[in-house]
Recover the amino acids of this structure.
């Protein structure tokens, strides 16, 4: 087990090295860090001096290793457009993204567990059929469509109809006020959650059906246990196993979805920061976020694999 | 599906059922069997009809509206809601949304198909090499694949979109002018969507290369390349077709995402994605037609393509007895 974890960590670090190398090359090729200095009238000597000061005259691989050396110590340099340390920028944005992601994940798990179990227990009922059809459609919907539609109905139209409406996010609001935070969270969380709920409901339904048809369930029923007790105590435990793997794999989806959701709802998070700064060619910020995102994905993959062995003793990692 | 029905469908999917005269008279090829299963897949057939209708709409539509109509700016009639003259309304510069959806659809589907083609080339090459050569090549290529999978594709799309999108010339093709960003988007999507394909091809080849017929081919003196191209890749074709079909839906979504975020296809060339790029700010002024119609077309196309992909997967799987 220890050797397995160790090996996975080494692999993970190797993967992160590939990612940082490639993305460093890509971001540096895509935007000239000196572009902002052409705005003012700067002489050629001054440009050369600034380049040398910033270390931009050295070969790209030297710049990469310097960047990497500082990055592992948490120093991502200064944003080119904001002139603030990148770590400050990210610290400002990270909590909001985490609030959005964690709330969405909780909603996803609770809702899909409820719907999936009910759907499996009432197999082929009207509810089950409608839900199966809806989840197939929901799974195919792009996140911007859901986000725009929810915004149009619950923020724009409800306001017009004089009903209690939800904010679009374009207003100025206080992140620390729990009431305002909740109101502003509802629509972004819903747009992030709908697609995953659709996917997991289908998943949990089929895994629940598989478990329900097994012998030990029949035995439990035969010895006189109530159906609800069998479903909740015996079946759910085994049926929920695959969900654990999916939660770990949700991280990239939620991070990617956050870009669109945060953009549509003006949510002051990291995804929107990434989109804005990528458009402005702010490569230190872009690199820092890419590294964070990739690390999160890699770490969660390893954690998922390890967690799985604890939950399911039949699985041995080698 | 009741047990009675499912029993029936299990029986009917067996080619050698004595109750079916034609099965007895001539054994069917795997392809014919797959086609038969596909035809019985209601959602897949519905999806095929739907997708054909979408294609018809954007092809026939371009005879009714010229591209000049689609790019015609009419500031007096900006942001008019749908009416009998502008079926889907007009955008913020008064361009007719109906015509733009026709031409945007052509661009979106063109991008989708070419991006999938690029992803196919990359995925099959990388997966094939990794699976067949094994050893260090395999380890390196698969770590690279994992690395590419570890960044959510939207992040990659944005970085690459910015990388290639800085200087874009205008292209002329078939007497029409396109923004060069179309090519950029094809490259960007193709470069970010080959990973699953590579993994599937590799996994298939790993299991296939242990087969007896590969040993037989080698005994007959076939070269590595010949075994790979003539024996291994054709046998993974079914998995490749299914992945490519589902990949088309994914490519259309990806185009919509980057263009929606303003880093994709650049106006005046329309695409389903960039028709919506102003809708976030306009939606608060009650402008609903600018996001609803393009996204409906995107959603329909994705749904139909996914239905077809699902049907193909079931049809190609000889053990499949599922008929929705």
């Amino acid at each position: 087990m220890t050797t397995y974890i160790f090996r996975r960590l080494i692999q993970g670090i190797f993967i992160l090295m590939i990612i940082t190398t490639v993305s460093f090359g890509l971001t540096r090729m895509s935007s000239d860090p000196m572009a902002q200095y052409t705005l003012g009238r700067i002489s050629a000597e001054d440009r050369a001096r600034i380049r040398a000061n910033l270390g931009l005259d050295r070969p790209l691989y030297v710049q990469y290793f310097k960047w990497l050396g500082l990055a592992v110590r948490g120093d991502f340099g200064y944003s080119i457009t904001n002139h603030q340390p990148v770590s400050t920028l990210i610290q400002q944005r990270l909590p909001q993204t985490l609030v959005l992601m964690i709330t969405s994940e909780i909603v996803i798990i609770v809702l899909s567990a409820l719907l999936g179990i009910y759907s499996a227990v009432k197999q082929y009922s009207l509810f089950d059929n409608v839900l199966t059809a809806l989840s197939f459609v929901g799974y195919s919907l792009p996140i911007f469509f859901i986000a725009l539609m929810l915004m149009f109905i619950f923020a724009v139209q409800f306001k017009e109809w004089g009903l209690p409406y939800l904010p679009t996010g374009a207003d100025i609001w206080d992140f620390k006020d729990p009431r305002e935070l909740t109101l502003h969270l509802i629509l972004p969380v819903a747009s992030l959650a709908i697609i995953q709920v659709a996917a997991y409901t289908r998943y949990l339904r089929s895994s629940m059906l598989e478990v329900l048809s097994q012998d030990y369930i029949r035995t439990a029923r035969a010895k006189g246990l109530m159906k609800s007790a069998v479903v909740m105590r015996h079946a759910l435990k085994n049926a929920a196993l695959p969900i654990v793997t999916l939660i770990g794999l949700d991280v990239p989806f939620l991070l990617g979805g956050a870009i669109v959701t945060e953009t549509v709802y003006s949510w002051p998070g990291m995804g929107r920061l990434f989109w804005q700064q990528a458009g402005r060619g702010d490569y230190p910020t872009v690199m820092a976020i890419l590294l964070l995102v990739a690390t999160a994905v890699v770490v969660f993959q390893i954690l998922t694999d390890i967690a799985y062995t604890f939950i399911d003793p039949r699985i041995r990692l080698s | 599906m009741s047990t009675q029905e499912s029993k029936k469908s299990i029986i009917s999917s067996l080619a050698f059922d004595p109750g079916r005269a034609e099965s007895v008279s001539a054994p069917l090829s795997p392809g014919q069997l797959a086609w038969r299963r596909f035809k019985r897949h209601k959602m897949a057939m519905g999806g095929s009809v739907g997708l054909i209708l979408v294609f018809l709409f954007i092809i026939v539509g371009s005879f009714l509206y010229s591209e000049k109509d689609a790019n015609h700016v009419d500031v007096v009639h900006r942001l008019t809601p749908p009416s009998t003259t502008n079926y889907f309304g007009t955008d913020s510069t008064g361009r007719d949304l109906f015509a733009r959806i026709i031409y945007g659809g052509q661009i979106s589907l063109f991008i989708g198909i070419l991006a999938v083609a690029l992803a196919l080339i990359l995925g099959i090459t990388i997966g094939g090499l990794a699976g067949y050569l094994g050893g260090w090549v395999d380890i390196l290529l698969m770590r690279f694949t994992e690395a590419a999978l570890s960044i959510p594709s939207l992040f990659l799309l944005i970085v690459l979109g910015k990388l290639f999108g800085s200087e874009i010339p205008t292209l002329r093709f078939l007497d029409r002018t396109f923004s060069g960003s179309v090519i950029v988007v094809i490259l960007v999507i193709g470069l970010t969507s080959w990973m699953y394909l590579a993994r599937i091809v590799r996994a298939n080849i790993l299991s296939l290369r242990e087969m007896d017929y590969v040993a037989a081919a080698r005994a007959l003196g076939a070269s590595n390349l010949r075994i790979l191209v003539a024996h291994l890749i054709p046998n993974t074709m079914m998995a490749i077709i299914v992945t490519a079909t589902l990949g088309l839906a994914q490519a259309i979504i990806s185009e919509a995402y980057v263009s929606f975020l303003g880093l994709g296809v650049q106006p005046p060339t329309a695409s389903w994605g960039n028709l919506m790029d102003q809708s976030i700010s306009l939606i608060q002024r009650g402008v609903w037609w600018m996001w609803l119609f393009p996204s409906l077309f995107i959603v329909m196309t994705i749904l139909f393509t996914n239905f077809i992909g699902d049907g193909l997967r079931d049809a190609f799987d000889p053990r499949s007895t599922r008929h929705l």
Summary: The longest strand of chain B covers residues 170-173.
